[in-house]
Amino acid sequence: MTETTPDFGPTDAELLDLPTVFANDLFKDKVVLVSGGGSGLGKAAALLFARLGATLVLCGRNEARLDAARELIERLDGAVMTQSMTIRDADAVNETMEAIWNRFGRLDVLVNNAGGQFPQAAIDYSVKGWNAVIDTNLNGTWYMMQAAARKWRADHEQDKPVGNIVNMVADIWRGMPGIAHTCAARAGVVYLSRSVAVEWAPFGVRVNCVAPGCVETSGFAHYPLEGSATFPDSNPQRNTGDVQDIAEACVYLAAPSGKFITGEVLTVDGGQQLWGDPWPTGRPDYFKL
């Protein structure tokens, strides 16, 4: 296997050996689905769940990345299934859920990580560009949530184990000039999650969100250098986070440690929401000190 080395964040070899506070068998006999699990935060979360004993299902659009992530998990002697699909296709989402239940008979955790955006001034968005981000980050996340919840509702009626959802959103509390489209979509996911956390509580489903601040991942490579250069100063710690910060936040909410938490947003940003001034497109001269 050829190891991929991202421009930002840990290498594949480093991902397999990142320290964690969680017990090795925490997710033994559990099935975890991570969308967008072939790269970035999704890959880091998937590998951590695998290291903690989970059976993994990875889905995403890039089959080569999924295969590379699968090989990493297999290095850990972990069981893994991959599914090439887009969360923007509701039929494909339903087919993926059917395939999971047909193979494993259950799903315990859904980590909705898949999404995407591009840095651009909002005034310049095309209709196509706006719709693409909203369709992926809001609609696609919803299709995954609803498809899993319908399966869990049926299982709950049969007194089978149920599950929980962790939605990856963003540190949107101050807004973020340069990616306004994803802020709009992720805010929708936050309040969708809070709403269905109540609706779905009767059949044993918890729904929470993780909101990363500026964290070093391979996704940084998609931003102009003048944009990513603003990230370390986006919080009072004057530093960027790492992928394990986010992966462990997902585990915390999905594990028994989060059993009394639902409808919440765990913000992991080094205090960015209190201080932050990241500009993914680069800080305009008007706002420079």
Q: What proportion strand? A: 5-15%
Number of domains: 1
What is the molecular shape? Answer: globular
- Biggest sheet strand order reads 3-2-1-4-5-6-7
CATH fold annotation: Rossmann fold
Number of helical regions: 9
Terminus-to-terminus distance: 48 Å
Mean pLDDT across all amino acids? 90
How helix-rich are the residues, as a percent range? 25-40%
Main structural class: alpha/beta
CATH class: Alpha Beta
Overall strand count: 7
Order of helices and strands: HEHEHEHEHEHEHHEH
Low-confidence stretches: 1-7
- The Rg value, from CA coordinates, equals 18 Å
Q: Could you name the CATH homologous superfamily?
A: NAD(P)-binding Rossmann-like Domain
Element layout with pairings:
Elements: H1 12-15, E1 31-35, H2 40-51, E2 55-60, H3 63-75, E3 80-84, H4 90-104, E4 109-112, H5 127-157, E5 164-168, H6 180-199, E6 206-212, H7 225-228, H8 243-254, E7 265-268, H9 272-275
Parallel strand pairs: 1-2, 1-4, 2-3, 4-5, 5-6, 6-7
Give an overview of the whole structure.
- This protein has 289 residues and is an alpha/beta fold.
- It has one domain: Rossmann fold (3-Layer(aba) Sandwich), CATH 3.40.50.720.
- Helices cover 40% and strands 12% of the residues.
- The protein has helices at 12-15, 40-51, 63-75, 90-104, 127-157, 180-199, 225-228, 243-254, 272-275; strands spanning 31-35, 55-60, 80-84, 109-112, 164-168, 206-212, 265-268.
- Strands 3-2-1-4-5-6-7 form a seven-stranded parallel beta sheet, with helices on both faces.
- Helix 6 (180-199) links the parallel strand 5 and strand 6.
- Helix 2 (40-51) packs across helix 8 (243-254) and helix 5 (127-157) runs parallel beside helix 6 (180-199).
- The longest helix has 31 residues, at 127-157.
- The protein is globular.
- The termini are far apart.
- 47% of the residues are buried.
- The model is unreliable at 1-7 (pLDDT under 50).
